Amino acid sequence: MTLLRQYILPRIVQWFVVIFVGISVTFLIPRLSPVNPVDQAMGRLTSFQTMDPEATLQMRETLLDLYGLDGSIIDQYLNFWGRLIQGDLGPSFQSFPTPVTEIIGAGIWWTIGLLGTAILISWVLGVVLGSLAGYFPQMWWSKFLERVVITVYPVPYYILAFVLLMLLTYYWPVFPLVGGSRGDPSFTWEFISSVLYFGFLPALSLVIGGTAFRFIMAKALASTEITSDYVQYAELAAVPKRKILFFYIIRNTMLPQVTDLALSLGTIFEGALITEVVFGYPGVGYTLYNAINSGDYNIIMGITLLSIVGIATASLLVDLIYPLLDPRVRLR
Amino acid sequence: QEPQGLPVDVPREEMFVVDQIFRYGVAGNYNIWQTAGTTPHRHAMMDETLWYVDQETGERIYGAAISDPMYNDDFTQMTVELRDNLEWSDGVPFTAADVVYTVETLKATPELGQSGWHAQFNQFVDSVEATDDYTVVFNLLESNPRFHNIFETRWNGMYIMPKHVVENVEGDLGTWTNPDPVVLGAYLPTQYDPNGFWELYERRDNWETSVAGTVIGNPGPQYVLTIFYGDSSRKAIAMSRGELDVYFDADIEAFETTLDTTPTARSWYADFPWAYPNEVSTRQLAFNYETQPLFQDIKVRWALALALNIVELQTEYIGGVAKVTPLPVPATPSLTAIYLDPMQEWFENLEIDLGDGTMYKPYDSTVPDQIAAWAEEQGYTVPGEPAEVFGPGWWKFDPETAEILLTNAGFSRDGGGNWLTPDGEPFTIDLQSPPDENDAFRMANAAADMWSDFGIDVNLSGLERAVWEQNYFVGQVDVYTPWMNFALASGDSWPEVRGDHPKYYVPNGEDVRPAGGNAFFQGQRLQDPQIGEYIDAMAAVAPDDPANFETATEFFKYWTENMYAITAISFKKFVTWDERYWTGFPTAENPDLMPLYWFQGGKFAIQSLTPVS
Amino acid sequence: MSQPSKTPLLTIQDVSKVFQIREGFNTREFHAVDRASITIDADSPKIFAIVGESGSGKTTLARMVLGMETPSMGVLQYRDRVLAELSSKEMKTWFYKEVQPVFQDPFAAFSPLKRIDHYLYETVRNYKMAKRKDADAYIDEVLRKVGLTLAEIKGRYPNELSGGQAQRVAVARALITKPHLIVADEPVSMLDASLRMSVVNMFRKLKEENQVSVIYITHDLATAYYAGDQVAVMLRGWIVEMGTSEQVLGNPLHPYTQNLKTSIPGVNVSDAWNEKIDLAVVETDEYTRTGCKYAGRCPFVMDKCHNQVPPNFVHEGRAVKCFLYEDPEEMAQAAAGKSKVAVS
Amino acid sequence: MLTTIRDLFRFSPSFRLGSIILVLAAILVILSFLSPYEPDDRRAVERNEAPSAEFWFGTTSQGQDVFWMLTFAVRNTLIVAGIAVLIGRGIGVILGMISGYLGGAVDRVLSSIVDSFIVIPRLPLLILIASIMRGQMTIVALGVLIGILDWAYPSKRYRSQVLSLRERSFTHTAIFSGMNAWKIVIQEHLPFIIPFLLADVVSGFLFAIGIEVTLSILGLSDLDTQSIGSMIYWGNYYQSLLTNRVWVLIAPIGASIVIVVGFYLVSVGLGDYLDPRKRLVRLQVKE
Amino acid sequence: MGQPIIQTENLKAYYITQAYGVERTVQAVDDISISINAGEVYGIAGESGCGKSTLLKVLLGSYEPPLTVVDGSVTYHLDDQTIDAVNLTPEEKRSLRWKDISYIPQGSMHVLNPVRKIRDTFHDFISAHRNVTRKESMKMTSSYLRDLGLPDKVMGSYPHQLSGGMRQRVTIALATILWPKLIFADEPTTALDVIVQRGVIQMLKEVQQREGSTLILITHDIGVHANLADRIAVLYAGKLVEEAPTRTIINEPKHPYTKFLIESLPSLDGREERSSIPGRPPALDHPPSGCRFHERCPLAKDICLTIDPEMISVGPNHRTACHVVAEELSHEPAI
Ligand SMILES: Nc1ncnc2c1ncn2[C@@H]1O[C@H](COP(=O)(O)OP(=O)(O)OP(=O)(O)O)[C@@H](O)[C@H]1O
Ligand SMILES: Nc1ncnc2c1ncn2[C@@H]1O[C@H](COP(=O)(O)OP(=O)(O)OP(=O)(O)O)[C@@H](O)[C@H]1O
Ligand SMILES: [Mg+2]
Ligand SMILES: [Mg+2]
After folding, report:
1. On the CB side of C135, how many CA atoms lie within 13 Å of its CA?
2. What residues in E contact D7, CB-CB < 8 Å?
3. Does A120 lie in the same domain as A53?
4. Which of A304, B349, B541, D93 could bridge across to B545 with cysteines, CB 3.0–4.6 Å?
5. In total, how many domains does chain D have?
6. What is the pTM of this model?
């Protein structure tokens, strides 16, 4: 009971507060933008003909009404929460009247699939390779790996992605340029293999970047871990290296890294914006980018909201599950 | 070599792959009368209106109509006769009832706000009736000799609804998504990417009863895939991989790469200058008269024009692939015939006052010859008369005269040779241009370099499109690079310039869009009652009335004498296609149709394709 | 037994500290210090030893005395002021000047990245013990009290000193404010045997020469006996026996104290060493035990020890918390007292 | 100080290599002031020249000398990253340490602010703000913006460091020596934080350069000021890869990698020096 | 008492470090010759920093640069084999460890993997040297723990759940479960409270006696030695200064340093002032010339300042290195 009162409840309250603040901030910021979705739409609708001022005004009114942008910011804010509580994110402006949920729904699984896999793969790879390199710092391959990583790690992600794209679609055209799959979604090998094929390049770029980062972290953690008494003692007792690596080093450096993993899985919803733009991958990151450019608040809100809830929930879960992962945790 | 990277499983040789010019924000919504329905390609594949105007010739192609619009004397009634052999894709015959139903529905439903038709029908249409199955009569609220423009496609024209489908829709038409479209066009959408990257169309079985089928008489490809690849380099890559048959436009570097990597690729001309030069629009360096009041002095404007070296601009910066034009009217065959050729003499004799009483003839008709000389130097052959290929002529490159003009306007040079305004401040120009609009940006680069050479402190910003627009919408720029067009392909000017009327004037600092009018023009913050008079005069007469063209010509002369904006070049488009799988796309050798396939009238180009094998 | 003429130096009255430990998704409360009462009177300086095995709550008690931890229950009073009522300013300007700590690990007590004299100068400056130019002389004077000179340690990092030296510097630092009470938590347990005596001797000397009282916390009964005037024996938060060191350690009454005594590894091996001794498996189990906390390993355990908390019996001039020393009269009193306590 | 640097230079290979790289970068920055061309000059030299003795890094299709462009670009990018790192780590260190040291209500308030910040997706927010500020986005503004968005994670790390430092005995010694909170944090705890700070500065640089490049690519930064990002943008814009003028891109990409690696190596060398016996090992492992 | 099981000859082990241009040689073990017999408990005593742990590392064959054996030898005599312990290959070490030679460290808290249950740690250690299934190793562990009087509950616990005393005893069990012939223990009781210390000492004794293993015990606490060791060697500043059976050392120490060590031991016998050793041990990178103790020795003479005293025999099994003792001896009539 005390645990609930002293630990779990405050964490859940914090979860609400953080989400509330996060969402309020993201509600406000796009509204500071001079890019106004109504005028944007007006521009689009009238770009090939001239309309009279009266007709224009009338159209503007209609649009304001349709987009739910009439009233003061406070009214809009209250309205927004009112709708949100019912799970309604409103319509997209750019693609009126398609509901935002539908647009996000179209991209979200791609993003989750791509990022989820890439994050998991790079996490496992990074942890294992990094810990290995930290455990055997004198080996040639360990030094080699570290050098490679140090060179890859600082490459701005965009560049990495772009170079991969050019190499593997142009100079050696083996991967597709755009899209996420071939054919209608189904549980056939054909479709699934096409998903893998189309997702390979973007995933590769994410895995390279992610692994490099995780490698550096894991190596640093492992190289402090190997100086710990229990590792040294197990070494002395000639416990097999493999066992020491997994059950002594990695198991002990796991905690902060699991936290990181959970947090990066929480960020999935904001999508890999750059990845998706570079590789023309059909996820929410690309959607978000378009929405930002066209001032489509509702989509921006929808995706950031998911992202905020995702990260907040991930860190909540980590905090709650921590005691299961670490037998040592004590309550202050 | 079977291409690997296409997202659909359709035999490549039965499919024409088209560059989708942007990623659809909304996929699978075929209610394109909705406000968000702007969909290039879709309207060409699926939708029909009454008439098409060929960009090249300015001639009218009959769409669903089989007659010209017929007006009564005071232009308060318009009658149209329709084709009687058309069918909807579900086999139901097309009749006048469909047109009447469409007009009435759009008029009654504000949510169907596409292209302002709802607003315009309410403004003009009193009633519409079908006098028989194939005749429609529009009774107008006020005299309007150009009412038919709503149904006549340059980019798009009012899409006709299938009455038998729409009238059975339950619920709100504003949110209806038309999930199983019944179309009058030749193609039906069969698959789409929910994320809007691509859409697959299949030719309808009864294609012969569609407009394009009737007009062209050729089946065209079984499948058409529109697909969005992204920027030009990616389009070039896609084409080299055989995964793209035609793309919309590219910068010259990407185009050259395409030529290098894809031997079967070509554009309008088989060789230099390749690009399609006849899209009906032109590019300007437009002044904002209120952020920089010095522009209100005509001498300053002319000085800036004369400080530009059009030959260098057209060659070094644009690669020699666009036509030059001194008017905001492009040098297409039809418009050259209507305006540029007849005005040639006037250009030659035009004299401007240098401010001290000296008169000066600024026009240089040798510009196309100089460009041709450059082209030959590069080893290119010029396909035809220089004036046909490179446009009529332009203003002289004459820095000395420009110097006199500025000096007479009270400017002076400082010790470093830089211009000072009459107030003694350095003369600086904030020039903004969006890099994604290739020609405009390169033109801006040229202007920045040349004006800098002339001693003006030019600050060029390459801004992302939305920002750039935002800046001139509210007037945070001295010179910007819009694209303006003062005449339709038919030569009628009023529909294009009506938005330039001074009544739409919006002062600097306010957003121009809510005021109606033409935003590109309004960004200049120009308020000249004389322009209003010309526009009103044109409005009063029928578009094919000779008086209409005369007024327009007078207007253009007035505009030119005043150098209200510096027009440099016509639009060009590297509409590039690969003849690997398909031939029959319009070319300079076969110019009967225009290649702008993303326009509603692009359907004819697609319909004319034949497989290579 | 004695009537203090004025207020005692330190009064610890029924002080408890409750901690929560977490086991998986459960938490458990336990009393790291359980109703401990100690009085150190101000008549003459004393070394008050607190002994007990590891985890018996010694450090926790010391931290509470130092104001580093607030008691969950009970009252701590230094001279005539209740600690809990001191403002943080008074804490800094008065209390810290009066009461200073010496910590267990002399190397951990100083930042390895700072020169050790840094702390001496800071203390002088912050408590305004000497003018800036006199600081060196003042510090040297204090260092001499612990058998060092400023010249010896100036500019050195902690790891350049021996443990004994470092611990002396720690004591010197505590002496700078001229405190009346030093709380030394196991000041010698990290030092090797040959250095221990030098530090313990130093405490004896300081008491004599500088009128400083010392709370000397240790698990080493030999030094407690050697240095301490009075001894309190702690067991899982309880004080189970308290009195003069001759009494308590010379002739321990409580079975636990006896156990502690026989466990001293003397040069002369005692017979008791042949008996196997029990250790607690999980120390918190003993903390949360009902009845006597020693019942689990007491050789004299009786039935009631398992479910009744023994009261403090006064026996042979000292307090003992064990039913072995129960006398009927006192038991009646204790029973009355207990029923009150049991409500909590 | 000087001897420290000399010793580091002599005995730490990573510091040596790293500092050579950084000195080269500094030389580039200094050279930018001596450039024969204005940063926005076009058509100053022959166009599309491959690297040669005359044009070390070649020229662009706009007639700019890539080498001299790079000097401006490195300078401006370092300004952006420097401002960002200064602001981000500054806020991060101060808030983290205060929050960790003071604990209690202050900590709770600061921690929830930090947590709210962490939860807000950074890149989209940056893109959003950048798109709002488009047109007015100068390099200084960009640096400030990145800095303001990049302090929450570091601050959390510093907080947990200080939390553990606070429990160590020497902190108590300091308290009983009469030092106030501010002094303790600065004098006692900061030295322990520095190795982390160094590593963090590197990742801050990396983040800032990455964002600078990303925003440029998306057309959201000031494209008219030379920076690594804008060089890459224009290199792409004029299709230097398709047209095999790779030098235009290799110069800025190479520079960004080399500079970050330089910072990384220097921080590794310094970190080793500051922490010869890896004392921090213990510091980190303690519960 | 059996045959020698481990011997050193003139062993010199130095820490040679180089950091940022400063070279340092710490003569942590300097010219030590000892011989330890099978089945005995051999105690090594001395102040902090005098080289006890270093000696043990070398004896154990577990050292890495900067610690290097610069001279001398270490030899094991195991199963009639003579093994050079200085030049063992990793494989040889692997095969010796735990089966023949084992090590009980200090600081039990940190020696046990905090996130692994005790029984898993046991399995790791056993299966590294014996081909056993998990079940078998569990059985071995639980019966061994029971024999040593540790409750079963221990097996399923995490280290932090155990009290300090339990942990230390578990560690001893972990080190000895394969019945090694040679057990090294480095300060196994330091920083433990007296009760736990007693438990640990009892257990060490039990383990040692059970199979007649040889125990090499390091601690600075003479009291602990008195209870466990058969013989004691006293180190000072990297040198062996005295070696004798426990009783002899305690009752008749010869070397002034040893005398100090014994005298400074407090007890419950009385509260009279006890002296402590003056001064502090020298730094071993620049050890004093001559007898290394001369700076702190009240009896120091001129010769002590310059000449390193030799090990001399002063009684049965009793050796010491001191000029003063040597001189006294030379004045006494030979026995
Ligand atoms: N902050 C805390 N939170 C939870 N439990 C604590 C805390 N501090 C101490 N304890 C527990 O309280 C009990 C008493 O601890 P304390 O440190 O006072 O004992 P000690 O007698 O000083 O022991 P030692 O001889 O080991 O120093 C122990 O079980 C300890 O684990
Ligand atoms: N890794 C090392 N590098 C350099 N010198 C070292 C190293 N380890 C120990 N020393 C030095 O070697 C000497 C002997 O150290 P050792 O650890 O053997 O002493 P010890 O007798 O075990 O002391 P303690 O009782 O403190 O454990 C000391 O002076 C110490 O400073
Ligand atoms: Mg303690
Ligand atoms: Mg040691």
Report:
1. 17
2. 20-21
3. no
4. B541
5. 1
6. 0.83
